[in-house]
Amino acid sequence: MVCNIPPKHIFNVLHPRHFPSEWVDLLQTKFWSPGLLSAFIGIKNNVWKPFDIDERSFIWMPGIIKHEGYIGAVDMVMWNMAACAKRSPEGKRDFIFSTALTDKEMRNPKKVMRVINFCMDWFRRTFKGWKENVEFVLWTPSDEAYGNWRPIGEKRPNIKSPYVEGLYFVGDQYGERLWGGGVDGASLCAVMCSDTIMGKDLESRIYPPYHRGIPKEAKNW
Predict the structure, then answer these.
(1) CA 68, 71, 74 angle in degrees (round to 5)?
(2) Which residues of 190-210 are buried (b: 16+ CB within 10 A; e: fewer)?
(3) Mode of pairing for the β-strands spanning 34-43 and 134-142
(4) 68, 114 in Cβ contact below 8 A?
(5) Radius of gyration of the chain (CA)
(6) Which of 116, 107, 169, 111 is nearest to 142 (CA)?
(7) What own/partner pairs with CB < 8 Å and gap ≥ 24 does 121-127 have?
(8) Which of 90, 104, 95 has the alpha carbon at shortest distance from 77?
(9) Is 163 exposed, middle or buried (CB count within 10 Å of its CB: 0-12, 13-18, 19+)?
(10) Does the pTM exceed 0.85?
(11) Beta bridge partners of 3
């Protein structure tokens, strides 16, 4: 059996009695999720033109809010896909913005509204005629945007379960040799899982060296 459910949620389908209680507690209480607070804003004119910035640019502003009880500095990430994806109507544009908060922070309305208000105030100060230019604003908070991440110092759950015979895990949060996350990590883990089950090495045949898993640690120094 291959399970591709994120670590914090596997016990919704796999009964926790089959696993050590310490491991169950680790996944359910210590693993955390980065949430994504995003805004989709419909605008009439290109707000970046006065600054001579290509509207397709990916703009990152680190540490806009610090020392206010968040797990870390809150960053701003802005990009405009209308110019390349052609999602907005003719003569219109969209302004897309997102920032990351933890899953717990995203369930705190006061913390979410603090970030929203900060960003909206920044938009109004920065872009001339912002109020007249904006046609609609949609904010969407998501408490789990990038899967479940292990605490610092903990390894990812291994692909082959040491507790249940014939149980394998796959996804961007599994595999002790896996790096990163997202689609790249998930596709790599799929091959790692297949190799583990079949006793093959498709990883070396399919992926270039720089895209393979982290090498196994040497046993002797």
Answers:
(1) 65
(2) bbbbbbbeeeeeebeeeeeee
(3) antiparallel
(4) yes
(5) 22
(6) 107
(7) 122/64, 122/76, 127/47
(8) 95
(9) exposed
(10) no
(11) 169
| Sole residue written with tokens 């938009």 | 123
Instruction: Look up the CATH architecture of domain 34-142.
Output: 2-Layer Sandwich (3.30)
CB–CB of 126/72 below 8 Å? no
* Rounded average pLDDT per 10-residue block, the chain, 221 residues: 93 95 94 89 91 86 85 80 63 85 92 94 94 95 86 91 96 90 90 96 94 77 53
Contacts of 181 (CB under 8 A, 6+ apart): 146, 147, 149, 172, 173
Q: Where in the chain is the domain with CATH 3.30.519.10?
A: 34-142
Residue 214 phi, psi (nearest 5): -60, 135
